[in-house]
Amino acid sequence: MTQAHAPGKVILFGEHAVVYGRPAIAVPVAQALATATVEGAPPGGGVTILAHDLGEQLVLGQPASERLRGLELVTRRALERLGAATLPDLTIAIRSDIPVASGMGSGAAVSAALVRALAAHLGASLADAEVSALVYEAEVLYHGTPSGIDNTVVSYARPVYFVRGQPIETFAVERPFRLAIAGTGIASPTRMAVGAVRGRWEADRPRYEALFDAIGEVARRGRRAIEGGETAALGPLMDENQALLREIGVSSPELERLIGAAKGAGSPGAKLVGAGMGGNMIALLPAEFEPVLEALRAAGAASLLVSEVR
Ligand code: MEV
To answer: What are the residue ranges of helices labelled H in 49-189?
Structure first.
């Protein structure tokens, strides 16, 4: 039996604008993990994938449900890449405690865990870049035009500064800081949110290009602040990023309620994460952070965790 994990992620700065070539920063969230377990199966059975959280299963070569098509694709591609000439007999079990459709990269993390477990089971090891490229194929299937940031951060499992089409840059966090990650309980439909932004961009390119430029600039400043240990600069940058995300139309009343509650209780900055329109928000935490968590709970957070960025 072989097991592998991949973390969830949050985008600290730059979502949506990253689809249009601007930089973004994302960090792994080790408290939310996807796990894949691979075991040998009786001869002739082929590959079975058990997606426990979805209550679904799939046998490679038989019709798959919409939700499992990405896993089917990633499994096939990984087996090709690993040189498996004939279909092995395996059972792959997937579990994840990363909330689905929450802006935390659950789909990408599940795919990354699967690829890594499969490689380990077949006695191979794949570089982070290879895992990321395989996971990207499933992301395309699910999300249409992904920037590639989600598969990158969950595959490298390190803070990344990401610019579409450019070599990956990882970077150091000079002074660790804490985030609260709170869920609205409402699904964040990446494909729909990205498509809605594209429609608005097509209708008014100059305005949206300027908004994306401003978001990209926030991401650059965010990286400098993190690398320089200037944690005090991060809160205002998160607020600035959120104001721009609001402008491009991907916030929601539920996200705003959680953001307002966190700020009102002493968080120096807060923003939505991922595609928005639901999903999760993050709030930078002060040293005494219990009041912020209390405020988020009181404002109806459907999930809440604290993550240290280091
Ligand atoms: C989704 O986690 C982040 C978006 O920027 C989409 C993408 O980068 O593919 C909204």
So the answer is: 69-81, 106-121, 128-143, 149-156
DSSP state letters, 125-152: ---HHHHHHHHHHHHHHHHSS--SHHHH
Cα–Cα distance, 258 to 269 (Å, whole number): 12
CB-defined site of ligand 1, < 6 Å: 11, 15-16, 18-19, 103, 143, 146-147, 149-150, 190, 194, 274-275
Each residue's pLDDT tens digit, 87-139: 899 999 999 999 888 999 999 999 999 999 999 999 999 999 999 999 999 99
Cα–Cα distance between 303 and 182 in angstroms, integer?
5
Count of beta carbons in the 10 Å neighbourhood of residue 82? 17
**How far does residue 15's CA lie from ligand 1's centre (Å)?**
5
Q: Which tens digit of pLDDT belongs to each residue from 224-268?
A: 999 999 999 999 999 999 999 999 999 999 999 999 999 999 999
257 DSSP 8-state letter: H
Collapse the DSSP code of 302 into the 3-class scheme (helix H, G, I; strand E, B; otherwise coil) and give the result: coil
Q: Is 160 helix (H, G, I), strand (E, B) or coil?
A: strand
pTM over 0.85, yes/no: yes
198 with 5: CB under 8 angstroms?
no
- The per-type count for the chain, helices as H runs and strands as E runs, is 9, 11
275 Cβ neighbours under 8 A, 6+ residues apart: 15, 16, 103, 188, 189, 190, 192, 193, 194, 250
